Amino acid sequence: MRELKYIILHHSGTPATNGINDPDGKQIYEAICRNHHERAVKEQWLINYVEKGREEDYIVDYHFLIGPTGKVFEGQPIEMVGYHCGNKIMNLESIGICLLGDFEKIIPPQIQIDALIDLTIDLVKKYKIPIENIKRHKDVVNTDCPGKYFPYAKIIEEIKNEMGKSVEDYQKEIEDAKTTMVRLGIITNFDQKEVDIERLSVILNRLINKIKSTGGAYGY
Length: 220
Ligand SMILES: [Zn+2]
Fold this sequence. Notes:
binds zinc ion, elongated, Lysozyme-like, alpha/beta, 10% strand, 2 domains
């Protein structure tokens, strides 16, 4: 297994979908894969990156691609290098993630960013990649990628927040939620460990009625 030190973030610079029949961008994903695979097979310079004889295994430059609805498409297998950031050393040591869309022109949907954050946190944990090594393509070479509307600072901040949460923080959050729900009469006790869907419906219904009865104010 190659040593993974970086995660590099990209946009595709294309439309995020192929129209109403392609809501999650699958057709764009497949088109990018087709282009990159054909180039890898045809062009000899890629031999530097792809093990000799494995050209046919080359799928796409990125290891993951994320569509506008947050669907994550698997690209190049992690153990294989992808030619995605124009710097040989970085390519050899990185995972490339590409969000479908052109963020020089549009702001990425929140659901797509949330999927990126979840995926990145998983990868950071799994491969022990430092958060400061999550970089944009433009941090590596001279390019606009991933576009001026890509909310990089917010993404890094959110990843830090999520990763910084301790078990105690989560427990405190749960305790606070319990106290609030009891006080508002949404729920009376916590004897039941498992909540089935019927019980959850009752709880949500009470919550909705509570919100309606207070005109939207929770009455803390
Ligand atoms: Zn890029």
